[in-house]
Structure formats: C-alpha cells, structure tokens
Design goal:
It is built from no helices and 11 strands. By secondary structure, the protein is mainly β.
C-alpha cells in the first residue's frame, strides 16, 4: 500500500516554472515505478511522465518532452516533476500515481494508487 500527497502547485505566468513534489508513505515505495498525470476541466486524465523504481529510466508524453523532468529520491520517498516553459494549456490538476504492478506505465488504468492532486494554473 502506498499513500501519495502532491504539493507545489500554484499560479504562474506563461514561460515560468513550477516544481511539483509527491510524498509517499509506505515501506514499499522504492519497489514502484511512479507516474505523473494531469486533468483539465472537461478533459480526460492525461499521462505526462513515468520513472522506473530505481530512477534510471524515464518516459515522457510528447506534449511535455523537453519541458518537464521527472525524478525521484527513494531515500526521501519523493518523486518530483520539474515543469519549465509553462503554457496556458498546461493548466490542470496534477496527480502522482503508482501502479500495483510496480512497472512503468502510460495508461491511467494501470495505476492503482493516486494522490489528491494539486492545481496548476498558467496565466497568459
């Protein structure tokens, strides 16, 4: 079992940066790949990035590749999403998630544990 809590969201101007953090509880955190998703009003939840349990492999959605960076610190049980060059279309609620399978995945259905989300608003 993994409990997840996101933080770091807020209001930022277009072109700015934000760093989201996800704090995990539970002894098995280092056994799980982790992912970040977002959901804008009226839209489906969108995959953004995933990172392997050891942090050595990452994968990004095309929409954020080159702008967002996922990383993790297993000692601190945290996963972060550094977001640069933000655009108004990045406005959404951002979620971190973990799959029971423990492996990297890109579909929300493959994730079993979710945080409550943190709001990111990018003004033009």
């Amino acid at each position: 079992q993994v409990q997840l809590v996101e933080s770091g969201g807020g209001l930022v101007q277009a072109g700015g940066s934000l760093r989201l953090s996800c704090a995990a509880s539970g002894r098995a955190f280092s056994n799980y790949a982790m992912g970040w998703f977002r959901q804008a009003p009226g839209k489906e939840r969108e995959f953004l990035a995933t990172i392997s349990w050891g942090g050595g492999r990452v994968y990004y959605a095309d929409s954020v590749k080159g702008r967002f960076t996922i990383s993790r610190d297993n000692a601190k049980k945290t996963v972060t999403l550094q977001m640069n060059s933000l655009k108004p279309e990045d406005t959404a609620v951002y979620y971190c998630a973990a799959p029971k399978s423990g492996v990297m995945a890109t579909k929300s259905q493959e994730y079993d544990y979710w945080g409550q989300g943190t709001q990111v608003t990018v003004s033009s």
